[in-house]
């Protein structure tokens, strides 16, 4: 029966000690003029993949390796794309030759050949006219049958048509290539040039490079795998930017504004302050998320803010709980 008062007395002492600690902490914050917020570290991650499909022949780095912009990470089999590039180069050469031919028009020798054909057609016409006239006289005197005359008349008509064809062919040669044909050949050449550029890009895309400084956190594919375009091969955690996602309640909202400098502390090195700048304050209130390590604001409405760390290092990791100290100064003061 005597132990009950002792238990109650012990509980009172513990409560008193806790209240004293909390009061000391609050009073320290008030004397220091700091607003204490709680949040977690956010680090951007990027999934790296090839823009073209193919067979993975080499994976250079592994999980935990650091990368910098331009670091070679992996390689696809380049042979199919090298063959496509060679075919595109051949098509471009053919298109350029066709464009040059259309632009330059017929060669002088071709024009002379067309003139020779015209002269030949004229000579054939003269001969056919003489033959027709002779056969008409022979038929009139009944020295030759009508069938021979009919053949001579048909030959004359054919010679007239051949003369027209030769004349038109020479006119086309002398006029040169039509403007529309030249433009079509030029368009074909430009299309072949673009196809060659695309083939070169596809070949260069068979090598995967790191886009920025960071660390490989996941190696997804292994050599020998057939990967599709856009299928992740690595997951890289970027070194920058690193920010803290924190929350502030309505009474402290007036002390928080964009561009304000703050200090960030983690549990590993509580005496080491990281410099940060508030880069975003949400205009919309929300319920306090469960990840916020605040003991007494679980159900209150808060405003989300983002603190950008100025000089991040490996001491701040993804998801790490941190404490943010915000000076209690009104904007502009």
TrEMBL record:
CC per GO annotation: periplasmic space
Sections of the chain in a coiled coil: none
Keyword Oxidoreductase (UniProt): no
Gene3D superfamilies in the record: 2.40.30.170, 2.40.50.100, Helix hairpin bin
UniProt entry keywords in alphabetical sequence: Coiled coil
Localization (cell): Cell envelope
YknX-like beta-barrel domain span: 244-326
The name this protein goes by in its record: Secretion protein HlyD
């Amino acid at each position: 029966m005597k132990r009950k008062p002792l238990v109650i007395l012990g509980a009172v002492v513990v409560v008193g000690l806790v209240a004293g600690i909390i009061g000391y902490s609050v009073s320290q914050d008030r004397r220091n003029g700091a607003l204490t917020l709680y949040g977690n570290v956010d680090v951007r991650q990027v999934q790296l993949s090839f823009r073209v499909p193919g067979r993975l022949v080499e994976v250079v780095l592994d999980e935990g390796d650091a990368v910098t912009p331009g670091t070679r990470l992996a390689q696809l089999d380049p042979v199919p794309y090298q063959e496509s590039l060679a075919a595109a180069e051949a098509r471009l050469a053919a298109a350029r030759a066709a464009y040059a031919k259309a632009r330059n028009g017929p060669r002088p020798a071709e024009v002379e050949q067309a003139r020779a054909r015209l002269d030949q057609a004229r000579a054939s016409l003269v001969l056919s006219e003489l033959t027709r006239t002779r056969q008409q006289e022979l038929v009139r005197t009944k020295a030759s049958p009508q069938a021979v005359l009919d053949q001579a008349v048909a030959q004359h008509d054919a010679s007239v048509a051949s003369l027209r064809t030769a004349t038109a062919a020479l006119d086309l040669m002398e006029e040169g290539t039509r403007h529309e044909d030249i433009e079509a050949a030029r368009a074909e050449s430009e299309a072949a040039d673009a196809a060659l550029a695309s083939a070169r890009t596809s070949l260069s895309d068979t090598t995967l490079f790191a886009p920025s400084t960071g660390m490989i956190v996941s190696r997804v594919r292994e050599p020998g795998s057939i990967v599709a375009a856009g299928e992740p091969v690595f997951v890289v955690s970027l070194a920058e930017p690193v920010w803290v996602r924190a929350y502030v309640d309505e009474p402290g909202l007036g002390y928080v504004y964009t561009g304000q400098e703050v200090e960030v502390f983690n549990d590993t090195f509580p005496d080491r302050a990281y410099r940060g700048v508030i880069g975003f304050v949400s205009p919309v209130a929300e319920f306090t998320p469960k990840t916020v390590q605040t003991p007494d604001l679980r159900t209150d409405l808060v405003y989300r803010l983002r603190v950008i760390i100025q000089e991040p290092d490996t001491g701040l990791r993804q998801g790490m709980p941190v404490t943010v100290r915000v000076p209690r100064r009104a904007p502009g003061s």
